[in-house]
Amino acid sequence: MILTREEDAILDGEKGEALSFAMKILVNLGDLEEAEGFVPIRSAHISGVSYHTAGEALIRFLSDLDRMGAKVLAPATLNPAGMDLERWKEIGYPDDFASKQMRIIELYERIGVNMTCSCIPYETPYRAEPISFGDHLSWSESNAVIFANSVVGARTNREGGISALASAIIGKTPDWGMHQEKNRYPTLKVNVVGKLDPFHFNLLGAYIGKTFNSEVAYFTGIDIPVVKADLKQLGAALAAKGGHPIYHIEGITPESHYIKNSEQDGIVNETLSVTPIELEEMKSDIYPYPADEPDIFVLGCPQFGISEFQRLYNKLKGRKLRKDKRIIVYTNRALQEMLDPKVLNGVMDAGVEVYNDTCMVVSPLDRIGFDRVATDSAKAAHYIPKMSNIPADLMPLEMIIDLACE
After folding, report:
1. Of 133, 168, 186, 254, whose Cβ has the fewest other Cβ atoms within 10 Å?
2. CATH number for the 296-404 domain, one of 3.40.50.300, 3.40.109.10, 3.30.160.100, 3.30.499.10?
3. Contact 33/179 with Cβ under 8 angstroms?
């Protein structure tokens, strides 16, 4: 990498041990990705928060940074933790897990990270730095990365938690990948034939992610308008199944004009069509290990936003949960504070449990008594078996309500 005099001084330790340590991380990453230099960032979003996923190694790493006196320079927000930070005992998390998780939260807070515990920083504007088209970011949560790139038109690579934190400390990130326009062009054109409902957006993302995991997808034929929650689920599924950092939709996403240049330059190397019925038929191939008669239904991956709460409230229509079933919704405190009390109270009056700070993917579900779950999230259905070693079925919200409610 080509560094400025100030960047060289930071690397050499002239500005302190913490800045030098963070700069070494970023320079090594930049050299690996053949970046020529840095770009300043508007914000960082840091994953690697749950003790369930990161363990003792994260505590040691953060403790070292704290000993060095590290402080974030760029506004930085935090991904979900492994538990609801206030109600963990009520839910049944073990004391040993809770103490380790709280230590991680304390260390992040000492470094100056905003304790959002949210995977949707783009939906909590008064607790996070608002982002705009063209902003350079260093974000490390997969659904947040693809939403920022695709729906907002900001620019961020799919960072790891460590590189995002290092960028927050330095205020810059290496200039490569999604920060450069040439890497944002579509390479796959997908024509959707038929109207998609929220469940189909999940299946569409999962199918394209699994089948074309090295392509930048450009979707045509999707009806306008599309609610933000559907774009959120499409991106989350693409990122979970295929690691995608960006997608485009004709007439919807801000960089969809790229398709014209892509087709002219021959960058689009494949075109296909798909229908909602075909997506439904593919479900058993994409998710071959469904849960047998689930008794717990988990919603909120990515965490629930305002429109998802409203949709759940409307679908419940005053129904109550059966005594042998549970519906759990995961969100964050900033978002919950923004909700219409009528909607939140209506959902909870039906028997739905609402928890903050965490989600079903980064929480140790097997340690708190979950053994058969279902979800309406393609991302959650992908990760739960891997992270908690229990089966997870994917089904529409309407089916979940019918199975769980009287």
Report:
1. 133
2. 3.30.499.10
3. no
Q: What is the largest CA-CA distance in the chain?
A: 68
Q: Are 299 and 376 in contact (CB under 8 A)?
A: yes
* Strand, helix or coil for residue 401: helix
Is pLDDT of 289 > 80? no
pTM strictly above 0.70: yes
Q: How far apart are CA 358 and CA 364, in angstroms?
A: 10
Cβ-contact 153, 133 below 8 angstroms: yes
Domain covering 5-181 in this structure, CATH number: 3.30.499.10
**Which pLDDT tens digit goes with each residue over 20-66?**
999 999 999 999 999 999 999 999 999 999 999 999 999 999 999 99
Using the Cα atoms of residue 68, residue 71, residue 73 and residue 76 in order, give the sign of their dihedral.
positive
The rounded distance, in Å, linking the Cα atoms of 275 and 188 is 17
Q: Which amino acid does the sequence have at 240?
A: A
Question: Are the beta carbons of 40 and 171 closer than 8 angstroms?
Answer: yes
* Cβ contact 304:330 at 8 Å: yes
Q: Give residue 258's pLDDT band: very low, low, confident or very high (50, 70, 90).
A: confident
Cβ-based neighbours of 28, under 8 Å, separated by 6 or more? none
User: Rounded CA gap, 364 and 367, in Å?
Assistant: 6
| Rounded Cα gap, residues 289 and 74, in angstroms | 42
The pLDDT value given to residue 356: 98
By the 8 A CB rule, do 404 and 321 touch?
A: yes
